[in-house]
Amino acid sequence: MSEIELKKQEMKEYISRMEYVQSLLGLVHWDMRVNMPPKAVNFRGEVSGYLAGELYKMTTSEKVKEFIDYFLPIDDLDDITKATVRKIKKEYDKTVKIPEKMYTDFVNLISVAESVWEEAKAKNDYGLFKPYLKQIIDYNKQFADIYGYKNKRYDALLDDYEMGMTEEELDRIFNPLKEVLINLIKKLNERGDKPKDHILKGKYPVEAQNQFAKIIAKKLGYDLESGRIDTSAHPFTIELGPSDIRITTRYDEENFISGLLSNIHEMGHAIYEQNISRDLRGTMLMTGASMGIHESQSRFYENIIGRSREFWKHVYPDISTLFPSLKKLSVDEIYQAVNSIKPSLIRVDADEITYSLHIIIRYEMEKMMIDEDVDVDELPSIWNKKYKDYLGVEPSNNSEGILQDVHWSGGSIGYFPSYALGNIYGAQILNTMLKQMPDFYERIENGDFLSIKNWLSDNIHKHGSIYTPSELIEKVSGEKLNPEYFIKRCEKIVEEKLK
Amino acid sequence: MSEIELKKQEMKEYISRMEYVQSLLGLVHWDMRVNMPPKAVNFRGEVSGYLAGELYKMTTSEKVKEFIDYFLPIDDLDDITKATVRKIKKEYDKTVKIPEKMYTDFVNLISVAESVWEEAKAKNDYGLFKPYLKQIIDYNKQFADIYGYKNKRYDALLDDYEMGMTEEELDRIFNPLKEVLINLIKKLNERGDKPKDHILKGKYPVEAQNQFAKIIAKKLGYDLESGRIDTSAHPFTIELGPSDIRITTRYDEENFISGLLSNIHEMGHAIYEQNISRDLRGTMLMTGASMGIHESQSRFYENIIGRSREFWKHVYPDISTLFPSLKKLSVDEIYQAVNSIKPSLIRVDADEITYSLHIIIRYEMEKMMIDEDVDVDELPSIWNKKYKDYLGVEPSNNSEGILQDVHWSGGSIGYFPSYALGNIYGAQILNTMLKQMPDFYERIENGDFLSIKNWLSDNIHKHGSIYTPSELIEKVSGEKLNPEYFIKRCEKIVEEKLK
How is the cofactor bound (chains A, B) (predicted)? Predict the structure, then answer.
């Protein structure tokens, strides 16, 4: 083996050990959210902190610097090694600036904060969570200042989830989208569109819902021999290893749509992770290209597939067997109900049109948290006011308001925009796909989901994070990120409603 | 702080980090047995291997040697520090002799072997498991040779589970017990005792059995806010942290006794772990005194409490409400059925009299595996012959024979004797307890299990492993380990049957 091949091998072994620690952090987190007995929370926080400290040491070691210094000057590196070095350099540069104690303190904090948030949400007690949120905001500000930024402090956080993204760019994309969506909702309200989702209200035993999730997993191609479905307060997907991609959901006994679409959403994430090339083990690239691209896959499955008329035609026989009360409804009635447009309070239950406004509210709040000195006491009323202004609805308590989502309690500020970006990437990907696979909707109706999965895997999944999100979307669609496809999709959906 | 106090503090912090790694190893193992998707097994094996390697490094580091060298010459150390130093020295001396690669290879092997064993048992295919068992035996022989021993190679392995125990000592205890038990069974057979357990055969939904397990947990004092009950192929108890002690069980829909007694057994282990003094964090002493003492607690709960007439008087109202078919039986009929004595093939379902013979068979086989060069091909027929000779029953396949137990696949050879020692310790502890708490059985009948738990916690649990097992039993009972109490108990049980 040549010297360079030996060095690559050495780097691969080093990164494999980092992947073991990441897998352990994942398992610790998954277990906390799904299984852990309540009194175990403090010790578990210490264990997380220990692991995070180990990962910190591995990320910032002399060895990593040695790999970077060795490979960086080499011009004709293969794509994968080049991407690996870019990634470890980015992590190194950022992490080495954060003192280890600050980092492990933060990890300890958020591992407790998530459980406090869960309790606060259950008890509708913002006061319980407030001091944790304040600390999380302060840490994020400090991190941003340490990372550095050109224009806005918030840019430094965005970059963690969507490489190269800025507030300026997001404003450029989100501001027109916000105007369009507020107008579309206004139009619907004026013309008096009546949401029909109440017809689905019924009794759907959790056990049967879970059984249906497994049927859907099989159809869509989410491999349950490399994954599993559990319940947790907030649904999530987590990668614990190349063949261990787990999702969680929460079921509502009166409404099966919420749990089903949430499951399909998470399966979109999980299918992405399950289909990244195994050759990328030990390269740091066995993850999605960005959070926005990741959300494009989950929302592709949830909205483009899961809310299509053809999907409901296909699953009608199965689901009406499992839930016989559905037999009194036609496919079209169910389809209309699933696609009801109704401004509501809960993001994860939102329809495709109002959803992005839920995100834009959070985005605007995050900018205030990070760029300005907003008082945590004021956050609930700011939240409520924005909901009233943009969506015309107002939370009656903090559990359905500021305490709604897990993200901030998990330490993530800057993640939310990914969801709306996911919608935009998704519509653009669909536009390309329809050119190459004009019978896309027929395939859905025939249950041929696997050919769709294969297209997505070949064009997106398998590459892991070899490419940056902007490289990837250009490679897939031939052009830069373009919000027009999603805006057109929204307009078309509303137009159809108004017919 | 004085220099010695600072050094103690430093050692505590060091050991705390080892405890984090042990907790992670526990979580990885628990997850493998309870949740992990099947295709994840290989990567998970690598993760286990990584953790084991970290623990190896921590156990054999220069730092540990420094602690030992510092504290060992100090005469007036407190009990806890003295015990800590004894323990880290023992681990250090043993582990430093094992090459790191050999150790991590072994951990990798057993993490795969357990899953292979599970499959082999399900498919009744000894051939599948055989090459793994051969390797596990070979590793154990090598370990024993490296650790060193005075008389028998097997002694070196026994010492891992029961400090200071030897084959000679076990022969001295087990040989007379074996004779007594074989004779008692003969007597029962001659006088024609008819086991009455068939009257309990029925339909017991898993959900209801699980619900009853939670009722029993509450009664006995197994805190489910610091624990949980799941299902797995082989029941076990695992400590993932000071407030995270989980048990697993397996339920039989036709027979609730098997799952119930298994649950009570594991709760005995879990109550032990939950009641070790929290002050022992960071000392390596937050574990049971030995495996034999641990089994004494689980079998105390299972047999002395769970098979007593008073226990069944107490739980009759609850259990006959949950399983109404039991209403046609009297408490005495259930009690007799639960205490049926019948030589059988499955250790975990065995009654109190025949149980120790199941252990003695395994003990004799382990001696052959380690002291002699027995061919793994011959193990199934040796197993079957011993069952025929001692218990008069013969397995019809390897799943209920040589493949029955998880222990060997988990790498443990030398563990089995602990179960029989547990019976012997347990009877001796009961003898002391009855002197101090003459109304012991009345308390059970009244459901006052917590005072019994408190006695055990005060006398045994809270000490963790500050004392060696022989120190502890002498401290509790005022004498050395004495098998006569258990032999008398067995004779009395059989006498009662023959009345």
Answer: Binds 1 zinc ion per subunit.
